[in-house]
């Protein structure tokens, strides 16, 4: 296989793709209303999911094309059996510089020691409320204390920890400042994310009452000396620092999509669909490729040509959806 230093994935807009996000399952133990309906979604049978062997094989091919960072998501990744073994195998791929995890924290605590031993490079914890009752309303589950225990455990173990809060009109906007205060005494990055329409129904919840501009205005009222930080152009979050606070704050315009110009990510869903953009409907059935008799070299060439189909931004990707013009996927099937 060609050395990763010889080839990089570059799309038609001259963006280098070096970050792979992998959803390892569509299952979740929470029922956050912005992600899926209360009754859940129709989970796929195991045979429809990529096996760990297929995930590692495809990841290795991607790494040979210049992918350096891998993030594991779900659904909730720790629901998948032997998830730690997958992490171990991905960390062992020559050329992988970082492996990160996004989790809701319900099952994570008992694995923190193993994650630390493996050298997991960062953990994003989904947390939309610091109020136990409101947490239950949003997630439809009584797991607040468990998630907060995981947050404390992550920090105690010294993980590079980020908190992801989806800001939702009429649901948790009254907690934006309280969430930001977590960074005052904790070495954590608190990121506020615009709500997106991926809720598993054909009804968009993204009214955009609380877009990135409104979120920043709210933070500036509470923290008048809020200072903007420099960050890598591919970082979807605009970062800010309150002087004297241990951690920092970030705002991700996930619905406004102002960061598309420097996007370096490609996504692999749990069913093996490659997504050039969060908002497209999938551009390649990688599962079919992996289960065919194609060689790694042949798959490499197909991946290179797939990246050449990448749209300029999320608006173009959404506009050019062919099968389902209306976004109706659950975020748990996409992987965020």
Notes on the structure:
- Its cofactor is [4Fe-4S] cluster.
- One of its GO terms (molecular function) is cyclic pyranopterin monophosphate synthase activity.
- Residues 12-233 form the Radical SAM core domain.
- Its EC number is 4.1.99.22.
- Keywords: 4Fe-4S, GTP-binding, Iron, Iron-sulfur, Lyase, Metal-binding, Molybdenum cofactor biosynthesis, Nucleotide-binding, S-adenosyl-L-methionine.
- By secondary structure, the protein is an alpha/beta fold.
- The protein has one domain (4-334): TIM Barrel (Alpha-Beta Barrel).
- 29% of the residues lie in helices and 17% in strands.
- The chain is built from eleven helices and 14 strands.
- The protein has helices at residues 52-64, 83-91, 112-118, 132-139, 144-156, 176-185, 212-222, 286-290, 296-307, 314-319, 331-334; strands spanning 9-10, 16-17, 19-23, 69-73, 98-103, 122-126, 161-167, 189-194, 227-228, 238-241, 248-252, 265-268, 273-275, 284-285.
- It has a twelve-stranded mixed β-sheet with strand order 9-10-11-8-7-6-5-4-3-12-13-14.
- Helix 1 packs across helix 9.
- It is globular and about 55 Å long.
- The model is unreliable at 1-5 (pLDDT under 50).
């Amino acid at each position: 296989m060609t050395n990763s230093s010889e080839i990089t994935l570059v799309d038609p807009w001259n963006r280098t793709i070096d970050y792979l996000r992998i959803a390892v399952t569509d299952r979740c133990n929470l029922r956050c209303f912005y992600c899926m309906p209360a009754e859940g979604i129709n989970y796929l049978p195991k045979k429809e999911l990529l096996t760990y062997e297929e995930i590692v094989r495809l990841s290795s091919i991607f790494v040979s094309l210049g992918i350096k960072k891998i993030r594991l998501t779900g659904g909730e990744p720790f629901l998948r059996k032997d998830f730690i073994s997958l992490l171990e195998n991905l960390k062992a791929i020559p050329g992988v510089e970082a492996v990160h995890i996004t989790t809701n924290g319900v099952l994570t605590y008992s694995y923190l020691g193993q994650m630390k031993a493996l050298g997991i490079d960062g953990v994003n914890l989904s947390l939309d409320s610091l109020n136990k009752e409101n947490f239950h309303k949003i997630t439809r589950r009584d797991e607040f204390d468990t998630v907060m225990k995981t947050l404390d455990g992550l920090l105690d173990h010294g993980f590079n920890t980020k908190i992801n809060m989806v800001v939702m009109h009429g649901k948790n906007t009254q907690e934006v400042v309280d969430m930001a205060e977590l960074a005052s005494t904790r070495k954590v990055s608190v990121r506020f994310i615009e709500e997106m329409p991926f809720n598993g129904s054909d009804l968009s919840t993204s009214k955009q009452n609380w877009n990135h501009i409104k979120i920043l205005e709210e933070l500036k009222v509470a923290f008048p000396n809020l200072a903007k930080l420099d960050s890598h152009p591919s970082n979807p979050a605009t970062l800010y620092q309150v002087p004297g606070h241990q951690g920092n704050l970030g705002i991700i315009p996930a619905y406004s999509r102002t960061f598309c110009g420097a996007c370096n990510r490609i996504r692999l869903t749990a069913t093996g669909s490659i997504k050039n953009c969060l908002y497209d409907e999938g551009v390649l059935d990688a599962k079919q490729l992996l289960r065919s008799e194609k060689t790694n070299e042949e798959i490499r060439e197909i991946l290179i040509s797939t990246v050449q189909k990448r749209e300029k931004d999320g608006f173009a990707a959404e506009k050019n959806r062919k099968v389902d013009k209306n976004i109706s996927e659950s975020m748990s099937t996409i992987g965020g």
